[in-house]
Amino acid sequence: MTEPRPLFCWFDTEYTTLELERAQLLQVALIVSDDGLKPIPQQPAGIPPKLLRKDGMSACLKPPPRSEMSEHVLENYQPLLARCKQEGHSVDEIDTYLSLYLDSFAETRDENIRARPTLAGNSIYADYFLVRKFLPKFLSHLSYRLFDVTTMKLEWRFHHRGPKFEKLGNSENIRSYYRGNDDIVGDKHDAYYDVQASMAELAHYRSQFVRIQKD
Length: 215
Known about the structure:
The protein has helices spanning 71-76, 78-87, 91-102, 124-134, 136-139, 149-159, 171-177, 191-214; strands spanning 7-15, 25-34, 56-60, 118-121, 146-148. By secondary structure, the protein is of the alpha/beta class. It has a single domain (7-214), classed as Ribonuclease H-like superfamily/Ribonuclease H (Nucleotidyltransferase, domain 5). A five-stranded mixed beta sheet has the order 3-2-1-4-5, with helices on both faces. The radius of gyration is 17 Å and the shape is globular. It starts with 6 loop residues before the first strand and ends with a helix. The model has no long low-confidence stretch (mean pLDDT 94).
């Protein structure tokens, strides 16, 4: 029997407050990659074309009332909030679209939950918390395992004393490690940019650890 491909489900969310029990989703982004961090893009029927990118998908949600958002979000997320007001979808629609995207991969239907794609990203526990809270269809396609790039970051910074991988405002650095075809656009407070940056950051750490082993 052919072994299922090991897949990463790179995922990021923007949300209304750091208090996760109260948080609501504002934006989601998804790229599925192989274990070599190369995106495996899909164009599933049923997903609005404007939500699909060259390597994955990105979508905004309808924002809640201002009273349900933190002051930090209201002060710093205005471009994203404007997009959410203009083009936001309901949380049920987003759950359906994410599920349709993952339906393109046979691995997401494997009876062995460990063989399904692994949710990956930076501080992915927070995104996983919100997935469990709001996106049950999407969750049903995933392994119970999580891959947190932040763990690699801490190992690199604290143990190996390596320099910080610069992401914010540094699209060239991300581009040099990112293996997909999408342009690197946006910056902080954009979920798709953060997904691309996390993939590039892991590729950077892998290259550094290989160099250390050779030395």
